[in-house]
Design goal:
The complex is a heterodimer of chains A (330) and B (206).
Chain A: H1 11-22, E1 26-29, E2 35-38, E3 47-54, E4 71-77, H2 83-93, E5 99-104, H3 107-121, E6 127-132, H4 153-165, H5 170-182, E7 184-192, E8 210-213, E9 224-227, H6 231-243, E10 253-260, H7 266-282, E11 286-293, E12 302-310, H8 313-320, E13 324-325, E14 328-329
Parallel strand pairs in A: 3-4, 3-5, 5-6, 10-11
Antiparallel strand pairs in A: 1-2, 2-4, 7-8, 7-12, 8-9, 10-12, 13-14
Chain B: E1 2-4, H1 5-33, H2 38-52, H3 60-74, H4 78-94, E2 99-101, H5 105-120, H6 129-140, H7 146-165, H8 178-181, H9 187-200
Antiparallel strand pairs in B: 1-2
Helix pairs in contact in B: 1-2, 1-9, 2-3, 3-4, 4-5, 5-6, 6-7, 6-9, 7-9
Chain lengths: 330, 206
């Protein structure tokens, strides 16, 4: 696959250099510059820190900003952040009121953040953990704790970030983050693969006329693979699978995220959204907010993910609260 | 006789050299079960350790602590973080020692295995690097010479890799398509086998 880069070893660091150069409100620090934080401190508040592999922008790093994340630990492409980066990101996010670690449920990320948390506990920094587990294709509803975190974690960033900005304490911000995760479900559908810089092959292979329903953001296998279907048929199945899942409290009010996995253009996203809106309204749902665009990608993978966040008055207000980061301004 | 600081430094150099030689082989193995970048990640990590391990000092605990700190800074991959955990465990267990008697090496490796299982939330039989560590720890337990340990470690590592090839992966991404993983080597297990081979002789590029 063709890529605009200078070398696999420098790919992530040069990307971060450019991201911060283009967005001067961000700065890099920590070991190897693998922590991104806001240039200006936000005052004394609960810190929210995330982290994950590169290759998913705007996730994870792109959501550092006012009313969202305070710091992010950045790993190599599709690899978790280092223990040292997680430690530095938590220190950067801490202003004395404690830190919420809010990241996707992946083994490497968990190990790094756990080890970092133990180091900082000895320094007296209080921290809680909330894991993104929104991907319904990665495990059954009865095993939600095994699910991966994908695009839906952005809702938790937004809502927890808004509550932290109000001055809430650590327990309250943690509660909101956990509630947002519990109310959000995501499913993805891939049309073509991506390739990690320096890797031998694309992350998976798929026929020109095939799609895979349920594929993860690193190319993890999905639920089925078959011939390409119409956008409406794909949208219908995704809506059915998300609404048919268990464990959330349905209120009849939703925020819908239609997300490009990288290469799929906005035109196709809006074709999908049009159908999703129709299907949801037909079933009596009210869409409070539509988020259509690139929210969590997988390099140059083509495909779409759909996230539904079931809102109540509290979550809806937090979703609409002010925020300002390179990829989301309210 | 036992393991000393010079041997650890030499082993890190050999491991980095092996990692350069097998980068392509590991990437290819990983592309069948994962992202396709295990070789790249391992080579980067071991080159970092190679360049930062101090040329002086005799305290094994201090050397492993430096390696742990460098590893913690350099990598966040699952395999890399398990290596960090191994170094941290060895640092704690060898603090103040200038030599670890060979007969005690198996016991130390067993403690590394236990720490990896606890942190990595993996069990024996899941088809991971931990299964290789387990078999090597048991095979070298009580042996009193470096040559005997190297032979036993190679035997145990290869036997385990061969045995597990026909089993399904039970953790990580590959658990999602466990049946497809039958007949394939776990890239982390393959990496450790090659690194153990490389302690004895130069590994050919795969």
């Amino acid at each position: 696959m063709k890529k605009l880069m200078n070398g696999a070893d420098s790919f992530v660091d040069e990307m971060l250099e450019g991201l911060c150069a283009a967005n001067p409100e961000l700065k890099r620090e920590g070991p190897g510059g693998r922590v991104v934080r806001m240039m200006a401190p936000q005052g004394r508040k609960v810190g929210i820190v995330s982290g994950g592999g590169s290759g998913h922008l705007p996730l994870f790093t792109g959501y550092v900003g006012r009313g969202l994340l305070d710091a992010c630990a950045v790993g190599d492409v599709f690899a978790g952040p280092s223990v040292a980066a997680c430690t530095a990101a938590m220190r950067a996010a801490n202003t004395g009121n404690g830190v919420v670690r809010l990241y996707g449920n992946y083994g490497g990320d968990r190990m790094s953040f756990d080890l970092a948390g133990e180091t900082l506990a000895a320094e007296g920094i209080r921290a809680t953990t909330v894991l993104g587990i929104d991907d319904v294709a990665s495990a059954n509803a009865s095993e939600q704790e095994k699910r991966r975190g994908v695009a839906g974690i952005v809702f938790a960033y937004k809502m927890a970030g808004a509550r932290a900005a109000e001055g809430a304490d650590l327990e309250e911000v943690t509660r909101v983050a956990a509630k947002a995760v519990a109310q959000t479900r995501t499913i993805g559908c891939a049309l073509s693969p991506c390739q990690i810089p320096g890797a031998a092959l694309p992350t998976f292979s798929i026929g020109e006329d095939e799609i895979e329903m349920g594929m993860g953001i690193h190319g993890e296998p999905g639920i089925w693979r078959d011939k390409l279907r119409s956008a409406d048929e794909i949208a219908d199945e995704m809506v059915d699978r998300l609404l048919g899942d268990d464990g959330f409290k349905s209120t009849g009010r939703l925020s819908v995220m239609i997300n490009s996995l990288g290469a799929t253009p906005l035109e196709e996203l809006f074709i999908v959204y049009r159908r999703v809106q129709h299907q949801l309204q037909t079933r009596g749902y009210r869409i409070e907010r539509a988020l259509v665009g690139h929210w969590a990608t997988s390099m140059e993978m083509a495909g779409v993910s759909m996230s539904l966040c079931h809102l109540d008055d509290e979550l809806n207000a937090l979703l609409g609260a002010p925020c300002d980061c390179p990829f989301w301004k309210n | 006789m036992g393991l000393n600081a010079d041997m650890v430094r030499s082993a890190i150099g050999k491991a980095a050299n092996t990692a350069r030689l097998i980068e392509g082989e590991l990437n290819e193995a990983d592309s069948r079960l994962g992202d396709g970048d295990t070789g790249l990640s391992l080579r980067r990590l071991l080159e970092r350790l190679e360049t930062t391990v101090r040329p002086d000092g005799n305290d094994l605990g201090e050397i492993f602590q430096v390696l742990a700190a460098q590893s913690a800074e350099a990598t966040g991959s699952s395999l890399g973080t398990l290596i960090t955990i191994a170094m941290l465990t060895l640092a704690r267990d060898t603090r103040g020692l200038s030599e670890l008697p060979w007969a005690e090496l198996g016991d130390r490796l067993a403690r590394v295995r236990d720490a990896m299982m606890s942190r990595g939330k993996a069990a024996l039989g899941d088809k991971t690097i931990i299964d290789i560590i387990d078999s090597v720890a048991r095979e070298v337990a009580g042996l009193q010479s470096a040559d005997a340990i190297k032979r036993a470690a190679r035997f145990a590592a290869h036997l385990t890799l061969d045995n597990y090839r026909r089993r399904p992966c039970r953790v990580g991404r590959a658990r999602m398509f466990a049946d497809k993983s039958i007949g394939m080597d776990d890239p982390g297990m393959l990496a450790l086998v090659r690194l153990i081979d490389g302690l004895d002789e130069e590994v050919k590029a795969g």
